[in-house]
Amino acid sequence: MSENPKKLNLKQRYKLLTRGLDWETTYQPMDKVFPFDTFEGIKIHDWDGWEDPFRLTMDAYWKYQAEKERKLYAVIDSFAQNNGHMGITDARYVNAIKILLTGVTSLEYAAHRGFSHVGRHLRGVGPRVACQMQAIDELRHAQTQIHTLSHYNRYFDGFHDWRHMYDRVWYLSVPKSFFDDAMTAGPFEFVTAISFSFEYVLTNLLFVPFMSGAAYNGDMATVTFGFSAQSDEARHMTLGLEVIKFMLEQDEANVPIVQRWIDKWFWRGYRLLSLVAMMMDYMLPKRVMSWAEAWEMYYEDAGAALFEDLERYGLRPPKYADIATKEKNRLSHEVWSIFYNYTHAAAFHTWSPEDNELDWLSEKYPDTFDKMYRPRFDYWREQAAAGNRFYNQALPQLCTTCQIPMGFTEPDDPTKICFRESVFKHERYHFCSDGCKDIFDWEPEKYVQSWLPVHEIFKGNCGGTDLKDVLKWYHLNDGVDNMDYEGSPDQRLWAEWTANRSKAAE
Amino acid sequence: MTLDIKTSGVEPRRQTFANVARRLGADKPGSRYDEATLDVQPTENFHYRPLWDPKHELFDRSRTKIGMADWYAFRDPRQFYYGTYTIARARMMEAQEKNFKFVAKRNLLSSVDPAWLDKVRAYLIPLRHYEWGANMNNCLMTDYGYGTAITQATMFAATDRLGIAQMISRVGLMMDGNSGDSLGTAKEEWLHDSMWQGLRHMVEDSFVVDDWFEVLVAQNVAMDSIIHPLVFQTFDAIGINYGGAPVSLLNEFAVDWYADSRRWVDALLKVVAAESDSNRDQISEWIRTWQGRAQDAFKPISEHVLGDGAAQAMDVRILELHARLAKIGIEF
Amino acid sequence: MTRNVTITFQNTEEARPIIEAIEADNQNATAVVMPAMVKIDCPGRLIINRVTVEEKIGRDWDLQELHLSLISLAGNVDEDDDRIIIAWGS
User: Fold this and answer.
1) Core-most of A92, A93, A486, C48, by most CB within 10 Å?
2) Region C12-20: what's the mean pLDDT?
3) How far is B270 from chain A (nearest CA, A)?
4) pLDDT digits over A436-477, tens only?
5) Residue C58, class by beta-carbon neighbours within 10 Å (0-12 exposed, 13-18 middle, 19+ buried)?
6) What is the ipTM of this complex?
């Protein structure tokens, strides 16, 4: 031992403590110990070429993460003690976080398990440790969401059986099929899908402007878990970029494989985020920015910079990104309309936007809103006022890939619904877009397996053929969790609480 | 004084999530552990079969021979979810960090008998690879396991083992003045020295076991119950005769960790063995197999450190395991 | 054209000295304040110097403390003991 130990910098220290922990096995063949990291065709010649993003050893990890957790739970506790849910702008807002708990929390959990898989099965120690840290982080995100939203569950409907719903409710098959798709793929595709396409390119759209919106609407608990999760996300994003660069640098033959995955997962992620577009434009009583603005900031600007940087590896921007940009002024309106139609089968409420909200949408979407959507909402509002709140009684046709009802429009004609189809083994499959059709055509054997909620209802696999039976099978309380916000128990109680509060203040 | 609590008429409409209430038998407040754990893993209507394992669903009970009517019958006695886990480990690490500083600042390793310190280097530093193996195995359990109650505990065990591997590495760096030479030597020994080959062979064999519960029994019960107590208790106690107390300080985390790990592992085995005779028999069989291998594999290392005392020290640990498992109804 | 790199922080007491340090060391940085967050853009390259932050807070500061208030970033990250650089291009 030395009297004067050499001073180690962060990089050297991390390398010594982590690299070299692994070894080339001799008693069992490496390909049997790591059976899954070659079948996708990705060629890795030198696992040591991996650059570790943010070199966290476990000691530092525990220290910083514990500090984040202490802070977060202090906020959650004080939110509960002070009846923080009373401080939000309006109870309609709560419907956005119902979607978060039922639709996103299970994705965090799926990411936890998916990264455990990759964290065991990639043969390089560097990427494996990075994936393991992400695996445990994602468990954190699932659990902090559950704990934060647990308070809302005590006062509002629609949160109560979130995981059960994730496995069964029709629109939750959109996020579920997305993550099942990634988890059932090989490890390199999984990391490309989740760390790069989803985390690096797209999740800013969910967690940054939406969470800022949560703060703006007085939900200090949600913004705290959201931003606390994002502080891990910044590490994950760096992992995502590193994974891509690593694969591209290792072998030229990897480029077309990675490009195909980026094309696929960009479109899959973008379709999933159409739910977020609706949440941002329609479900926040006070809005920070529109979906179109967020798209410009986080995809058009940041994405352009990213893909310009990746050009040197022979990578191009994702296919159909131009379509997504074409859709930015209609996406949220189309999706809100779909859910307005089917709120009787959803575990959250929709409503007719108020005048000032319609005006905000007109201002943010000057080229499309007044022309195409405002008249529709005006009409629906009149009908609702006259006692004819419209609920679509026919089950919708779903896109086989993204599983969203087929309500999106032609890229160059926003007045015409977009239909695409493919025939595989004498069966016809339907798609909402060229992007979703391409994904199917690449791997039809995979997507013919889709558990499509409408098909399953018709097959009799969802508790019965009557809507009431299906809702029961979903554990959805009919007349409570679903239907228009107007007249819902949430709305009545909120009115009562706020009236009592103003009385008490007098 | 009368206490007048003004309420705004805002009463909770339910106390916990429906799945938690179903398990508690009533709508009463669920603990943070319960809410973060129970039923969190999806169970049905998976969309696609894994390309890498088309015989199974993403989460599939048939990935182990162990059968449970309800995989949430097990609850972690430590009540660890991410928050409680990380905060507990940060506390342990803070104490450990003080120990590292204390030893480094006073250059206490120089007070240890050099021959003993050389022995410590020889038995301890290569174990960073054993810990890394344990990390891989716990990661596999988290991947293939069923039910959040178990897979979160294995996730925490996975990061624990990485942490311990890194702490052992730090001890090495302290010994070699941060040159990393001790780590290089230890890896050479792990790979080529005959003393380590039995252990490495066993660890590599555990990497190719598909049944995740077998891996759990092999790693977290059979192997750990021999290796951890021998290294961090028996060897350490001998070291005291050679001025080895500073080494004990550097290993304190590992000692505390093992006591902590045993709590959940024992609670898990107890519930699983109580479920059925076939579970009990299967666990016994796995323990017999892996415990036997672990004994043989670790014998040369134990002999290197303890000489003639090795056989007796091993017997103590084996008896200890018999007693421990007898308490939870498992004989082997 | 030089694309922006971006770093976003929570609008907290801990992040404030980091944001001030970035503003001091990156003349072309612009900060946009939104509810609960601050987004900083800078053409091409942005640096966070440990020493500048330490001057603002009057104590030792470990760059990894950044993780406590970071929300998002865009650009390639290069980190050592003294600074973090976020940049486009290699």
Assistant:
1) A92
2) 94
3) 25
4) 999 999 999 999 999 999 999 999 999 998 999 999 999 999
5) exposed
6) 0.96
With CA atoms as reference, report the closest residue to A22 among B118, C39, B165: B165
Does B14 fall in a domain? no
Q: Could you tell me the domains of chain C?
A: 4-87 (3.90.56.10)
Whether the CB of C38 is below 8 Å from some CB of chain A: the reply is no
- Are the beta carbons of A140 and B82 separated by less than 8 Å? yes
In a domain, B151, yes or no: yes
**Residue B3 pLDDT greater than 60, yes or no:** no
- Considering only alpha carbons, which residue of chain A is nearest residue B172? A1
**Are A121 and B49 within 8 A, CB to CB?**
no
For an interface test with C, the pick among A299, A309, A313 (most C C-beta atoms closer than 10 Å) comes out as A309
Cβ-Cβ pairs closer than 8 A, A with B, add up to 267
Full-model pTM: 0.96
Domain that holds residue A57: 10-505
CATH code, domain with B184: 1.10.620.20
Instruction: Tell me, yes or no, whether B52 lies in a domain.
Output: no
Please give the residue range of the domain that contains residue B107.
Answer: 79-327
Domain count, chain A: 1
> A28-49, pLDDT tens digit by residue?
999 999 999 999 999 999 998 8
Residue type, A106: S
- Any domain includes B19: no
Asked if residue A3 belongs to a domain, the reply is no
Length reported for chain C = 90
Nearest-angstrom CA–CA distance, A278 and A333: 7
Q: Is A103 on the interface with C (CB under 8 A)?
A: no
CB-defined contacts A:C, below 8 A: 95
Report the SS3 class of residue A414. strand
What is the distance between the alpha carbons of residues A200 and C6, in angstroms, rounded to a whole number? Answer: 13
Specify if A5 maps to a domain: no
Q: Work out the minimum CA distance from A63 to partner chain C, whole angstroms.
A: 10
